[in-house]
Design goal:
By secondary structure, the chain is of the alpha+beta class. 24% of the residues lie in helices and 19% in strands. It has a single domain, classed as Glutaredoxin (3-Layer(aba) Sandwich), CATH 3.40.30.10. It is globular. It is found in: Cell envelope.
């Protein structure tokens, strides 16, 4: 009987980093003046309310698994506010405060709650995927946008934020 050939076990491939492209096609463009709701006090906001400091806008939803995955690191980034960075996470959930506020409380995610009624901001930004993050510099001009979740405490996030002077 011939001896059996033995195979050596190949090492498991490294887990790939989240796949996303950095889109700079709109670099230098001003944000839309579309209104969205501050769920903490019911007031209306626009991105102009956050000018003079770098601004990271994140579009997310409670039903979006990658959004929920990145929210805790996004909240921490907002709390740490490197170089004055403002983090504005805008929910695209259709039911607004009725869904978003209990969700954030249940998940213990300490991030200021904003809501995009009727997805007007998402449409004005010409985006259809979640999560979506867009960095604006202190002059209010777009630096880049990415689609997909990101660990906002990781090296890739630091590299991306540095592109906007953060």
């Amino acid at each position: 009987m011939a001896p059996q050939a033995t195979q050596t076990a190949a090492a498991a491939p490294a887990k790939p980093a989240p796949a996303f492209d950095v889109d700079v096609d709109r670099k230098g463009k001003a944000p839309p003046s579309t209104k969205f709701e501050d769920l903490a006090d019911g007031s209306e906001k626009t991105m102009d309310d956050f000018k003079d400091k770098p601004l990271l806008v994140n579009l997310w939803a409670t039903w979006c698994v990658p959004c929920v995955k990145e929210l805790p690191t996004l909240a921490k980034l907002g709390a740490d506010a490197p170089n004055g960075l403002q983090v504005v996470a805008v929910s695209e959930d259709m039911q607004g405060a009725k869904v978003v506020l209990p969700f954030l409380k249940d998940k213990k995610i300490a991030i200021h709650p904003y809501h995009d009624r009727d997805n007007a901001l998402m449409l004005a930004l010409k985006e259809a995927s979640l999560p979506m993050s867009i960095l604006f510099d202190a002059d209010g001009k777009e630096v880049w946008r990415i689609s997909g979740d990101l660990d906002w405490s990781g090296a890739k996030a630091k590299e991306l934020l540095a592109m906007g002077g953060v």
